[in-house]
Each structure stands twice: as structure tokens, then as C-alpha cells.
Amino acid sequence: xxxxxxxxxxLVTLTSAFNLPNRSPGLFPRSSNARTPxxxxxGILSTSxxxxxxxxxxxxxxxxxxxxxxxxxxxxxxxxxxxxxxPVDLGVYTGYGSHNYGGSGTVYKYAADGTLxxxxxxxxxGFCNFYYVSYAAVDTTSANAGxxxxxxxxxxxxxxxxxxxxxxxxxxLTNDIGRSSIDPVDGAIYDVTNAGANYxxxxxxxxxxxxxxxxxxxxxxxxxDLNPADGMLYRGGNTGSSGCGLILSQIDKSDPGxxxxxxxxxxxxxxxxxxxxxxxxxxxxxxxxxxxxxxxVVDPATQTVVRTFMTTAPPGNIAVNPINGNVYITDGSxxxxxxxxxxxxxxxxxxxxxxxxxSVASPRAVAPTGRPRPTPRPRPTPRPRP
Length: 386
Known about the structure:
Blueprint: H1 2-16, E1 52-56, E2 60-64, E3 71-76, E4 84-85, E5 92-96, E6 105-110, E7 116-122, E8 135-139, E9 146-151, E10 157-161, E11 168-172, E12 181-182, E13 189-192, E14 203-207, E15 214-218, E16 223-226, E17 233-237, E18 245-251, E19 259-264, E20 274-277, E21 285-289, E22 294-299, E23 304-310, E24 317-320, E25 327-330, E26 338-340, E27 346-349, E28 357-361
Antiparallel strand pairs: 1-2, 1-28, 2-3, 4-5, 5-6, 6-7, 8-9, 9-10, 10-11, 12-13, 13-14, 14-15, 16-17, 17-18, 18-19, 20-21, 21-22, 22-23, 24-25, 25-26, 26-27
């Protein structure tokens, strides 16, 4: 009994050294069925860059039409909120951690029609390995293209896999980090720690596309997004003591420890919960505030607020249609995805998705035609001259 008590004491001590959120299954979590997802029949083929993926109840991925929000297909797969859409083949990526210390994570790709394209495993050194597979991002343009998976909640980590097979290319150990932003020119991966004030990691990591170099820089903790058209990197959010607060910044990539400019948005919002960029040169930036149920639209060229608009649900998660700049939002509890235009008009509301709509993702790609322009007015036919 003394030995057993000592073992439990050691395990509890080890657990306290790691940043495990409330969703942790505990010291002795049960095995997961995430490795055997239901293979769906082909759904309606997703053909638009603007189609949006959404996670429902951490056990189902749905693809919605950009035109009206109708469900194109649905796949049953337990996941940790990781979600990304491939801008080339419109497939959808998600993943699920081992939920056991030292276990590998499992990653999945669903084709544009919702059929399971592949499943594979990812691992990283360290005590946690991939306890969670928290976020996903896609690199389709660099010489080392692949899917980038990141972890938060049990230290951190970055792993990159092949887009076509899911085979792991490399991995590096980090502290807890969020969703990666990827430079389409050289594939550099930018990510900021998010463990919070109890840990004060306060780090911006820049990882090379091939995983051979990891450069840390001092940074506040928040969210990042990179405009793939002009390569500008933006950061902000997180009102905790280690957070970037209500400040939106453009980071100087030649000197990542400093910024080109900073904007204080406290006059407009009470929280800063998500960040997304219209993917064309000089595209507007969307800042989402769940606390204010509001979106702030910022013009980075002039560092001014273009407009603000209220949302039906608090925007805890957002994604941008790369064709027309519409913004998709979910609040993590209601059963709906909402689409708004850049002017704040509600474009559509999805049907009831049957559970809480959480992570939402669309292709983070350069808009195929650049900044959308208004449809020109028809000119009158000139009268014939005598």
C-alpha cells in the first residue's frame, strides 16, 4: 500500500508540472475510439474555395456551402478542434491526441466529397507526446509543403505531415502554442505561446518549413494570422496578464521582436478572441470580440477602423471566405454558423447542425482574383452619329 501511495503521489506531482486544461481526462484516461472514424458515403462535392468546414461537438466535421450554408457532407470523427481546409484540393484535416501521456496523436484527411482520404499518426519528443492535436494549418506553396499540426494543453509541439498520405516529415518540441500562420513564400511557420499567466512562456516561435531551425522571440501571448498575399503578420488578443490584450499589431518579420505598428482597440471592444485576414494585398483584418458580440474591421494600410458590426452570436471562432471576404463565425455553443459580409450584412445562417458549432475553417489562400471589386454599372449604348 505504501508503494502504491508513493506511485500515485509521483503521478500527481508530474501532472502538476504540465498545463492540462479542464478537458483533460485525468491521470488514467480511457482509450478513445478516434482511430476508427465512421467512413461516410460520398457527399456533395465541395467545389468552391469559399466553402467552410466546421467541427460539431468535437465528434463530427461538416462542410458547408459558401453560397447558402447548406451542408455538403458530414463525417463522424472524434477530434480536439484541429481543423483546416486544403486550398488546392479542398480536403479537410482534423486530428485527435492520444489523451494519454507519451502517446502519439492521430490525424485525418477527408476529401472534398467527405470520404476519408487517409489517417496517420504524429509524434513529438517529450513526456506528453501529442496528448492533444489542437490545431492544423496547411502549406501548399513552399518547397516543403505539408500539413502543420500544433498542440496546446500538455506542453506543445509542431509536427508536419505529407498532404497526400499523412506521413510525418518532422516534429519539434515547444511550449503550448496556438494555430500556426504560414508564409507561402518560404513556408516559415509562425506561432505564439498560449499557456497563460501561470507559465509566462511569452514566446513567438519561427520554425523553418523543413523543421531544421526553431527561433524563439519574446512576445505577448495572443493570436496570429498572416496575409498570404503580402506576407504581413498580425498579432493580438488575450486579455490575461501575459496576453497582447486589445492591441492589434503588425509584426516586423525582419525583426520579430518588434512591431511595425500597434492599434489599441479598447474603444471598440471588451475582449479580443479571434483574428483573421482577407487574403489579398492590403486586405482588411477582422478582429472578433465574444465579449462585445462584435466584429471590428481594420484597414492595415491606414491603421484605422473601417467599421464595426454586431453579430447574432458571440464570435469566438472566425474564418474568412478567400473569394469575397465574407466572414464565418461560431460561438462554440449554438448549433449554427453565421456568414457576414465585410460590411456587416448577415448573408446566411446555416441549418441546425445538431450540436455545438466550434472550430470553423476555410482555405487560407491568396484570393484568385485579388481584392473583390464592385460589379461595374452598365454603360448606355452610344447613339449613332449622323
